[in-house]
Amino acid sequence: MLYTASDQKPLAYREIAAAIRESEFLVRGYVTNMVEKGIPIVKRYINDVAYISLDRSFKDRQAKENIVKLSQRTVREFAV
Q1: Total Cβ atoms within 10 A of residue 24
Q2: Is the separation of the CB atoms in 42 and 52 below 8 Å?
Q3: pLDDT at residue 15 above 80?
């Protein structure tokens, strides 16, 4: 979801949780796991709410090299 949506706007954890029908707590855990694996997540706060997106250069490289091995099915499934 971050891969497909972060071009449009950064996403709040609650937006991601609602879209994938999981808890916000679980989404925070997923994001932490991605950061620990080296995926560059950009986090910024607006009115005390955290918004996240993928680093643009990583996203460009991922599009060319499929570093994290995303399938097209996965990308379509979570497209916003």
Answers
A1: 14
A2: yes
A3: yes
In this structure, are residues 4 and 70 in contact, taking their beta carbons and an 8 Å threshold? no
The H or E element that residue 53 is part of is: strand 49-54
Antiparallel, parallel or unpaired: β 49-54 and 41-46: antiparallel
For 2-52, give the DSSP string.
Answer: HHHHTTT--EEHHHHHHHHT--HHHHHHHHHHHHHTT--EEEEEETTEEEE
Tell me which amino acid residue 61 is.
R
| Domains of the chain, CATH where assigned | 2-77 (1.10.10.10)
Q: What confidence tier does 11 reach under pLDDT thresholds 50, 70, 90?
A: very high
